[in-house]
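Lab notebook, bench 4. We co-purified these components, and the gel suggests they stay together. Before we commit to crystallization screens, I want a quick structural picture of the whole thing.
Request: model the full complex, all chains together.
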Amino acid sequence: AQTVTQSQPEMSVQEAETVTLSCTYDTSENNYYLFWYKQPPSRQMILVIRQEAYKQQNATENRFSVNFQKAAKSFSLKISDSQLGDTAMYFCAFMKQEYGNKLVFGAGTILRVKS
Amino acid sequence: ETGVTQSPTHLIKTRGQQVTLRCSSQSGHNTVSWYQQALGQGPQFIFQYYREEENGRGNFPPRFSGLQFPNYSSELNVNALELDDSALYLCASSLGRQNTGELFFGEGSRLTVL
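Here is the predicted assembly.
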């Protein structure tokens, strides 16, 4: 079975600074997807960024980028130029390629952006 | 485009009772997944419905059951409620059974079991 571990229960960062959230996972699969989802307080969870395991290039979405280390089974999220609206719970998630939509989530990291 | 909506938003039940939670998928989406998010934890996959049929189930007992209707809306039913069933129940919709994992979530139904 796959497991996803987020070792940082809480993080804080000053507005405009950069922060990195950590995630490790365990799997014997070779083809899979990794995700970071954001869950703002009392709002819907939304997809932040997605990485296909077969791609060596790290995914980027505007201020969000990942450092995907397949051999180390590590998938960290870097948020640049942090904004107050980035305050949320961030979940790392894993999905086997043939298991559409069945995500395995980590326990989450609460990120607080301070002004 | 209408997003995913869930009802009720909050509810309180007692042990042994039954509960039904409802979800309307995003317009055009034919796949609905349900997740349970206990306090302080990440969501856990309960099951998924694709075109009215169950298409995969997580590690949840049979007292967790579901339905998907022809309009792709869905229900989650939980019988014989236990205290540990207290959680936020999230519905997520997507297009297709095997896509690349982008789910569109509702705001959830928070269930408290006393």
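The CA atoms of residues 36 and 92 of chain A lie 5 Å apart. Worth comparing against the SEC data before the next meeting. The interface with chain B takes residues 4, 33, 35, 42-47, 50, 52, 91, 93, 95, 98-108 of chain A (CB under 8 Å).
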